[in-house]
Batch of 2 targets.
Target 1
Amino acid sequence: MTHARSKYSRGTPSGGTLLDTARIRADFPILNRQVNGRTLIYLDNAATSQKPRHVIQSIVDYYERYNANVHRGVHTLSVEATDVYEEARRKVARFINAPSEKSVIWTRNTSEAINLIAYSWGDANVGEGDNIVTTAMEHHSDIVPWQQLARRKGAQVRYIPVGRQGALDMAVARNLIDRRTKLVAAMHASNVLGTINPVGELALIAHAVGALMLVDGAQSVPSMPVDVQALGCDFLAFSAHKMCGPTGIGVLYGREDVMERMQPWMFGGDMISEVTYEGAKWNDLPYKFEAGTPNIADAIATGAAVDYLDELGMGNVWAHEQALGAYALERFKELEEFHVMGPRDPGLRGGLVSFFHDTVHPHDLGQALDRMGIAIRTGHHCAMPLVRGHGIAAAARASFYIYNTEAEIDALIDGLKDAAGYFARK
Amino acid sequence: MTHARSKYSRGTPSGGTLLDTARIRADFPILNRQVNGRTLIYLDNAATSQKPRHVIQSIVDYYERYNANVHRGVHTLSVEATDVYEEARRKVARFINAPSEKSVIWTRNTSEAINLIAYSWGDANVGEGDNIVTTAMEHHSDIVPWQQLARRKGAQVRYIPVGRQGALDMAVARNLIDRRTKLVAAMHASNVLGTINPVGELALIAHAVGALMLVDGAQSVPSMPVDVQALGCDFLAFSAHKMCGPTGIGVLYGREDVMERMQPWMFGGDMISEVTYEGAKWNDLPYKFEAGTPNIADAIATGAAVDYLDELGMGNVWAHEQALGAYALERFKELEEFHVMGPRDPGLRGGLVSFFHDTVHPHDLGQALDRMGIAIRTGHHCAMPLVRGHGIAAAARASFYIYNTEAEIDALIDGLKDAAGYFARK
Amino acid sequence: MQSLEGLDELYEQIVLDHYRNPRHSDLLTSPAVDIEVNNPFCGDEIRLQLKTGDDGRVSAVSVAGRGCAISQSSGSLLTELVHGKDAAGLHGTVTLVRRLMKGDPVSEAEMDALGDLSALSGVRKFPVRIKCALLAWSALEEAAEKLEQGAK
Amino acid sequence: MQSLEGLDELYEQIVLDHYRNPRHSDLLTSPAVDIEVNNPFCGDEIRLQLKTGDDGRVSAVSVAGRGCAISQSSGSLLTELVHGKDAAGLHGTVTLVRRLMKGDPVSEAEMDALGDLSALSGVRKFPVRIKCALLAWSALEEAAEKLEQGAK
Ligand SMILES: Cc1ncc(COP(=O)(O)O)c(C=O)c1O
Ligand SMILES: Cc1ncc(COP(=O)(O)O)c(C=O)c1O
């Protein structure tokens, strides 16, 4: 992968793959925050990323300068708001290489995007005896909607198993996906294992039996170049809040011809073309799937987030994440009594490390780290079946993003040593 | 109605019912905006209101100081974010006098809140031959979900007619609501006619036949004191963006016992209590209805908006709106060839005036006013059946809020005269 | 009143004249194509009908609708530009009108071919109204496609 | 390491001891009530079982589960406070523990009645962990309600 130059890239002693974090950190006001007397070390990026000033400012600008409802106004504010709002949609379309912005639907988050497909596409296309194939490492948001769809329709959910090395068992996948498979739904990057799944390959297998392919991009779109046409997926879901954008907005990309045939799911203003007391006709894509006043400010801010990431270059972002992931994996080897989950090969994974300790519960580890200003996540990570499959109820996770440094990982490792020591001594 | 004192109230020459707009305007940065060389006169508040600095700042504060995902984190940022986020829910509960914050579900907007009821409650409780009663003046968001529910279930939608004076025909309502009625859904304040509907009375009629009552509060909650217990409604839906709050977030209030019995609609993270490969159990209220990462920033900002309105006092807000509505109605009498829609009696309506001209299309009027920096809305106002019922396809609407003044209404009237003159002369 | 002067570019005399006195607005009997389009956001509507002769060229046209001065005058102006054109000719005119609205360079000869419709070029300065101006033309595009399909 | 000192208030020696060596964690045979609760957000689990004598008072208890030191030690400490109590007594203890966690004033006598559980009072300074500490107690509350219903 070649990395485009950007004013944020630079050569580094560690081999030239890290971003210029000093420069990037200056863009993120929160990184100056003190927590328990220490400068915040934020390693909970897989839960939600921090936001650059530019993105925050785009929200302020909207509210202070051109706040108005979109699409329906002839007045200047409404025209301006509509322009910037729709430009944000085009930016997102370009970011994932969607053929048209008509394929880009704003949702609240990844979860809603997947529910939209489960209801609007699923209820019309999945029948009794059909099956939906997903993976054993999925996030609840990519499991429960399918379980419920299956229940409504008398269909079945199948789980592609996860091997010891944290990778999908593709041989089994080929057996699970059969003529009765209507949809394959898989996460691109795991929020627990860090694994990067071969979703392009799954798409080929799915298409070979006439099934569609949905990619849960919640963890991949923020971190690596994702090209829906290259992946060959039919649907892609992701959330802005994990990629420098605001909370409250996500994206469903859907193949235009598929979505043309889908019925709307939510009804109301903006998604109609005509309403009488007897019935209604629908608006065109993408509006058909967007009922009521949209999340205008956050759509605009998502456009700003995409601008920011484009400026860094997603190839560079990915190189940075992989480098930090590899570095963390290496450093974890020093830690006794800690067990790292997921692939051992850093080349197969992204910038996060989940782990657990022989005796200290993740929650207590997290509490101890918080005393040192280090924020990690602990718990089931919305992947209960996977985590329990490891014989534990909870794990700790450190996840990295564009502003994290090797020095912060050093602090994490030292902190874990101290925490383990603290609990061992008492 | 008595009006609590607030630092924003003051006696005025026009009779003591207006807010201290000079002081309020200073809180709204956008009101200094120049449009086509004039200071913005924003009269499109029923579409979306402007936002005070305090609300905008609450978003900035969150992103710059304690942005983190909620509910699942032991680290300081997550704890702080969860606290402020849940406090916002409590503020909203107090604002509408809900007995408990468990009854307050965050949605994207009013439209989504109504869809949630149509699917989660409607699909389980409405059957063949049943009916849903709504009104002939509803917004599309309170029509199309019921039409679609009726279609799914073989039920019927009935419309309470609107009389000449823009009021619901309650005698007919009493006939329409019968033993087969499962739900009565009505707007509290009309976004076109300005009418305030007797939703408390409708609730009594509904309950008498064992039906539930849903109130579309999109236009009332921003403008008047709304007390769900006093109204006796079972559901109330509204949007933050029309009440000084951000876009992208709305509220569904639902009676706790009713919502306890409802099944979740969207599935994913946060709304579950346990997930296995076989199935899932649901979390408690309110979380059961909130799948995935919530719109944290905008929930917090909604709390800030409620603070702002509480400070003004909703009684004062309502007095101000009614005074402006009455003043506008009076001044419109001067205008020949213009027709005002809705009740003639200013006591029966809120702070908006919809109108049309004998020959000049609303869109062209709006364009002309925009040249003068005056923002009004034109079109079908998402109430096509109502507007067409008046023999027109579109109307113009000026809607007022807490920062609007009589002087701005004077400018509107002058602008309309000029606009009509312009088109007449050409 | 001075501030309304800027509107003159949008509302040329001839545009308002077509708005008030729409040409060819009577419905046709047994048209070859009959198309309704609307703008879902503002509610403007256009119904366009065409008849063609044996040579496939437009022999009669009707445009009727409800909406603002721009959408309706554009529809009326359209009726003056379609007579005698075949599907390809209609497509060409639609393309030319779109170019005009987008602000692409349009030659003098092309402008001449547009006749009175050139009066609508002021719309370019009011981008939100371009959709109004193009509403009737999106109907014509659909009509041209239907004519082509019918011819096959 | 200095920074970890603040943790001592949360993780008292006795708390960690109960975490590592939970008391009364073996399942009972044919318990009168058997209740499972969990914290949906972090996944911590507690299973609580009670047996009662003819007088309706607790004669045996078991608490088992998975989770953090606070949730599990609180469950273990609970087992030392229920013996011989009837439903009303259990409710009383739950209320007292909730008051302790909320930071409401608690008398010395009350504190004494809580025994080792008073070691958990440091949780008050870590509000997010109060839920952990109360998990087992919400199970006990449910259990007390069930006992009452059974008695009716
Ligand atoms: C009465 C009424 N109901 C519902 C809505 C829909 O609100 P939203 O677009 O925020 O979903 C509106 C506003 O557009 C309204 O005025
Ligand atoms: C892989 C994966 N899928 C789905 C989600 C759900 O995203 P959201 O909570 O924004 O809906 C997440 C994040 O929590 C995730 O990591």
Note: The first strand of chain C starts at residue 33 and ends at 38.
Target 2
Amino acid sequence: MPVKGRIEVNELYCKGCELCADSCPQGIIGMAAERLNAKGYHPAEMIKAGCNGCGICAIVCPEAAISVFREVTQSQSEDKA
Amino acid sequence: MPVKGRIEVNELYCKGCELCADSCPQGIIGMAAERLNAKGYHPAEMIKAGCNGCGICAIVCPEAAISVFREVTQSQSEDKA
Amino acid sequence: MQNEIIFAGFGGQGVLFAGQLMTYAAMDEGKEVTWIPSYGPEMRGGTANCTVVIADEEIGSPLVRNPKAAIVMNLPSMDKYEPLVQPGGVLVVNSSLIPRDAVRKDITVVRIPANEIAEELGEKRMANMVLLGGLLAHLPVLPVKAIEKALGEHLPAKRQKMLPANIEAMKRGAGY
Amino acid sequence: MQNEIIFAGFGGQGVLFAGQLMTYAAMDEGKEVTWIPSYGPEMRGGTANCTVVIADEEIGSPLVRNPKAAIVMNLPSMDKYEPLVQPGGVLVVNSSLIPRDAVRKDITVVRIPANEIAEELGEKRMANMVLLGGLLAHLPVLPVKAIEKALGEHLPAKRQKMLPANIEAMKRGAGY
Amino acid sequence: MAKQLLKGNVAIAEAAVRAGLQAYFGYPITPQTELLEYLSARMPELGRAFVQAESELGAINMVYGAACTGARVMSSSSSPGVSLMMEGISYIAGTELPAVIVDVMRGGPGLGNIAPSQADYNQIIHGGGHGDYELIVLAPANIQEAIDLTVLSFDLAEKYRSIVVVLLDGSLGQMMEPAELPPMKPLKTSFPEWATRGEEGDPRHFLSSIYLDPSEEEVANLRMMRRWQEIKANEVRYKEYSLSDAKIGVIGFGSAGRVALSAVRSARAEGIPVGLLRPITLNPFPSKQVEELAKKVDSILVVEMNGGQMLDDVLRDVNGRVPVEFYGRPGGVVPFPDEILGEIKRLATQPIPTEGTPRDRWLSRMP
Amino acid sequence: MAKQLLKGNVAIAEAAVRAGLQAYFGYPITPQTELLEYLSARMPELGRAFVQAESELGAINMVYGAACTGARVMSSSSSPGVSLMMEGISYIAGTELPAVIVDVMRGGPGLGNIAPSQADYNQIIHGGGHGDYELIVLAPANIQEAIDLTVLSFDLAEKYRSIVVVLLDGSLGQMMEPAELPPMKPLKTSFPEWATRGEEGDPRHFLSSIYLDPSEEEVANLRMMRRWQEIKANEVRYKEYSLSDAKIGVIGFGSAGRVALSAVRSARAEGIPVGLLRPITLNPFPSKQVEELAKKVDSILVVEMNGGQMLDDVLRDVNGRVPVEFYGRPGGVVPFPDEILGEIKRLATQPIPTEGTPRDRWLSRMP
Amino acid sequence: MTVSAPVSEKTIYSRPESLTTTPTHYCPGCTHGVAHRLIAEVIDEMGLREKTIGVAPVGCSVFAYNYFNFDVVQAPHGRAPAMATGVKRVLPDRNVFTYQGDGDLASIGMGEVVAAAARGENITIIFINNTNYGMTGGQMAPTTLPGQITTSSPNGRDVETQGYPVKAAELLATLEGTGFSARRSLHDPKNIRLAKKAIRTAFEVQQRGLGFSMVELLSTCPTNWGLTPSNAQKWIEERMIPYYPLGDYKVHPMLAEVKI
Amino acid sequence: MTVSAPVSEKTIYSRPESLTTTPTHYCPGCTHGVAHRLIAEVIDEMGLREKTIGVAPVGCSVFAYNYFNFDVVQAPHGRAPAMATGVKRVLPDRNVFTYQGDGDLASIGMGEVVAAAARGENITIIFINNTNYGMTGGQMAPTTLPGQITTSSPNGRDVETQGYPVKAAELLATLEGTGFSARRSLHDPKNIRLAKKAIRTAFEVQQRGLGFSMVELLSTCPTNWGLTPSNAQKWIEERMIPYYPLGDYKVHPMLAEVKI
Ligand SMILES: Cc1ncc(C[n+]2csc(CCOP(=O)(O)OP(=O)(O)O)c2C)c(N)n1
Ligand SMILES: Cc1ncc(C[n+]2csc(CCOP(=O)(O)OP(=O)(O)O)c2C)c(N)n1
Ligand code: SF4
Ligand code: SF4
Ligand code: SF4
Ligand code: SF4
Ligand code: SF4
Ligand code: SF4
Ligand SMILES: [Mg+2]
Ligand SMILES: [Mg+2]
């Protein structure tokens, strides 16, 4: 079963440039059409499931607005031990 | 019989640097030991015969002080004609 | 006699262009006139504003602390300029983007839903013209015809077909 | 009381060094003193000169138009400074290189074949010391001993062995 | 020609073109950039030389070279860029060449900001470069003046073999006013004798600012100083507003002068006998006019968009005749008319203080 | 320590070393070069930083960077080189950093020559760079003063977060006099809070001259101007010679002041009541002293090795109280005492003219 | 939609400590921000934050001091390498770098950067090549491509009168004092990763005292190019890279053994 | 002894017309004079004397305007290429060249010469590399050899703190606007002949509008090197040439067909 991940977009920094959305292999990022942030941009958000925490969106984000997390399954944590 | 040539050193320019003397293949240039020019240098002069007008001294002279001449023998002038 | 009008809003709302139109019109009317923009930091974006002074004699300062009138197209501009308009002056408010009412009672406040009207007329970017129409209705410093002439001469070629719509926009604004 | 001496000649004749020696000596004698060279064009060669002022009180100008004395080591310097020496002053002439006599009658003129004397003593470069000796004989601003001490302290290490010869040179110069 | 609505920077650029500008060398800097951008299209279109230099240092030395040919040449910049031109300016002045430089001043010192300022008055008027030299400095207060003075600058530069600086602040560069452009002058076809143009048959010339022999340099310096006396005698320009019966004289140039004019009008409306002297040539400075003013008014108010620079020249010329007060806004702030009106009212109603210097008194009044 | 016979350039270099100079950045130029050459051996020998920069432009910006660390830093140059530093100087002033610059002036404008001159007075005192800023300027007249003022310059620079310029002419750089050097100070080990030193645990700092908001720039400008008032109140330095009973006051700085001293002495010997005021701080200028002098003498003679630059500051401070005359030698010429004596005698015997300006009258007397 | 966090998860990426919490003023999608981020990441990873002093230029990145969470000084236009030299000579053990645009480094600042490289000055230069003068509104830069339209090359850069683009990485590689000179691009994830490696290498060169190090980064200017952020990235790939080949132009031999 | 002239003889060499009759101020044996002579010969041979404008630098050759028999202007230290650009842009059909020393071109003037080359400015640069600042008394130049003692590198140039020599011919060859970049030496007759050829080529490049051309000439400074003129020439051969290889570093393809 595929790795599960998620991202958090800090709307303080996001400028809705869409580079993350363009580059997400899973195509699960979109701009919040209805919402504007303080700077007046539609911020990025996850629009569907399927994030595997690959981190590519964070790599392209010019504003360092994205944090990426990955679920740790039992096996993995054992590997650690 | 070897080509004959001669040089004229313009003492207005000569600074007695000896570069011409060093480079003359015939070794016939020396500095006039007894004479000082207006600038206070011992100027270059021909100290013996044998100049063939090769022009090398003029090529190395930093002051463009040397004029070089070469005798034109009959044959040469005929070649010209 | 001298009138000063400040145009203020977001970059892209056409405040500088509206101001220039008025300046051209004033010039054609043989008035003394100055147009001066706020030129921001050496970078993009942010808010924009310009000051237009129209007078009969040589104009001194192109900038004034207290203008006779102001057109405000967004909330920050409203907050900044409402307090500065001269008593008895005119404040034209783009109610489409500015929820709050004006607090001043000593000035004429004209609220116009400029964005809605402009979209009705099929071109968002005409909101500035709607508000300009509103201004001229309450501060008749120039005949509307003069502005229409200026529009004809200075509307970018590719938007010339929008000329009638622009004129209509002013008319609609004048209705408030 | 203030005395000014100009040292002048070709670069390489040691006029600057002779002036400095006198300056060191004056300093050791507790006098106020200044030494100022003519620093020529940003390039080599040409003539060199320096002015030494020795006084009992704070020195004003380090340069003077009319020095009390001048040591001239070549003809151009003679031509330049003979007219400038104060009436009653001293002109020390290197007769080895300067054929002509002085025209001034109101100054003490000392002609010394400095080059010849120096060569006799085995070192062309001591001509300046010969002339310095001549100067001090006719303008006793400083005791010869003071100069000798300065010589001892400032003659370049490699030339220290020449110290006695230099002292001898001054003595010979003093004879004129 | 009919009036057109023109932005200061563009108006100056086109005026220069019509005055016969043959070569322009510049580097981008706000608030001057539109001038360069306009010429980047206009000059090539006319087959004339336009070079965006590697820097202002490059630009001023390209101007130096081009000026040696006797052609009409110009550069433009703003405060930090102009500071980089100081060596070149001193060389051009020392070589006695005609050239025009437009300086659209911004807030400083250092990087500062890009807002309108007059804080480079001293740099431009009192020699930012080394050595004894003077620059002719013209200070327009509106777009029409900017055009007219730009044209004049080329004529003065050639007449006196001098650098002419058109000195304005950022707001004049950025604002629009109706103004009339002059007709197009043809490019020069005859050139001064001294020009180095590599012309067949011409005697060879060289141009340099070097005078290795100080006495020769002194002769050159004196020649230039005497030429300057001539300039001072012939070229002083200024404008007076309601000074005839004034008891208070306001002095300000450029935008500060404009703002002061508004204040003077309001004050007059309130019956205060005040007038304005607006220097147009900052160098030569209208010393005589300031002196005359000092003889008839009771007090003088100097207004600048800086910390008090022209003030010193006014004090020198007032020479103690009447008290002088100063009001300035440094750092890129443009004063509003009401601030100056307040100062005028103070002078009209309160005894004029005399202790301390005008600058000290101003500082004590500032927040 | 005993006196040594020292050349001006070398004396200044060693004095700086003993004052704790940690980094020097410079570029060769006559008549300053010995200073750089001396430090090229001395600094490495002490394990301190010496860099022969690519240019004066590079040098002043290296100084800028080094000054950000709070260390004692210096550069030195001569007229054309100093002109290239104007942008950097304005930035350093705008960032309020301490730094020392030695300027050994030569004849100009342009390439000019390498002879002694004072023609950069205006450039250094009245802001050669852009914007409102002031530099502390110290003008030695002999080698001992050059040493003492060099040491002082570092202290003043740090006390007021200011650039201090040691301003002298080529002859002072080249001449030798007996003088005493100060003892060696250790290098600094504690640094101001504002310094950017990348120290573990320090809060992060940044240093810049940018104030994008004009009102913030105005606050910074006013802060610096008020600091300048403090400097003007505390740091004025000058020397007076036989002024007590003088009826004629001579004013001159540096070498011109020295030459004037000789003339004053000769005049006194002839019974002329004349004295000398020699400003040591050219900025802050001894305005009070000039004012006091103007109150007690009948006339003032300003002597400079230029075309009359400090003259304007004297005129401002004399403020019309007494007539002022000027005598100068521009272009690298050093006046002889007898020339100045002649001027003093003229003032003592003939009525002082009042028409025209002192500069105009001087030019009319010059060949 | 949002996904609730699982019981246990690990952080793959979070904002680096060497960036402050101040949002940038850069236009949306401008890769100046990516360059800032990479520098911050590298400095975090090398543990140099507390001993780093950055030198900001004049250009859109003039405010870099607001974004970097370490000491920063700000240089006159083009003079950053000289200013960095001043800092480095007083504090030789600190990590000193400049951040410069193409107008700043390749036009007005060419003299200073070449001299710093020739001196083998132990500093690092991060060079942002966006083919124009961003801050002043998009004028031609030395790096502007032939035929490219800018506000001061309105008919497209004419190489006959306006010259040819300057290739800084190649030019600086010719100087003996240069320990590392490379060109990378910021237009996609793969290249961004490679850019970060190069930045790491540059700082390693400085830490090892191997001389002058420079990384040229091809960067977008969507605003002045008149392109969307993603089209701007394509423009780099299609237009810039062919003219500005990516790669290492000078690598100090002693770098072989450096593992990154 | 003197030889009386024969009845008929032809002149093999005489002072070129492009030199004035003013004796130079150069030190005895200084090859600045040779460089002047070669330029004058080439300009005579190309018949360009009356349409040439030279730009003199600040350096020992500051007085070049006294020696060249055509129009000359004199630039601030290092700015000759900018000044030449100004002249050339106004008078594109004239022959414009600068004559610059190594302090002038490779130190303070690096920015201007690189920019001129990048612009492909149609001017010629004659660059005199004598490894020091001659005029100011022999300080270190960017071209000073490692370990070489000068008045500002009294312990010999330490490459660690004072950097490495700049190789101008190689550096300028990297720029696309450069049509010709070569290095020659003035230390013996053979090389002097080759130097003259290169100068000719450089002017041909300009005449054909092929862009920026530069000839670097290794030149002696007997005075500051403390050597006799002839030993100074040996020093070039033994010390300089190994470090500064002679040769062509950039040759415009269209030069192939140019016969000189
Ligand atoms: C001496 C000087 N000249 C010009 C300017 C104006 N200026 C500010 S930024 C800039 C160019 C910036 O372009 P670049 O270096 O490419 O940086 P970018 O904005 O593209 O990142 C210029 C010319 C200045 N501030 N100082
Ligand atoms: C701005 C400026 N800085 C410094 C100088 C002093 N200066 C005159 S010539 C020179 C160096 C000349 O050396 P180089 O260019 O190698 O020419 P060379 O004399 O060796 O032929 C310097 C530094 C100056 N005149 N102007
Ligand atoms: S890349 Fe970053 S700034 Fe752009 S939209 Fe995504 S999160 Fe926002
Ligand atoms: S971490 Fe990978 S999968 Fe998840 S959103 Fe970002 S790019 Fe898409
Ligand atoms: S080379 Fe020329 S200058 Fe030297 S000695 Fe011979 S002739 Fe005289
Ligand atoms: S021409 Fe040749 S042979 Fe004759 S002197 Fe000159 S070098 Fe010697
Ligand atoms: S102007 Fe260009 S470089 Fe500057 S911030 Fe905007 S996109 Fe980036
Ligand atoms: S100092 Fe050197 S370069 Fe200058 S003239 Fe003398 S030998 Fe030639
Ligand atoms: Mg850029
Ligand atoms: Mg050299």
Note: Chain B touches chain H through 41 residues (CB under 8 Å).
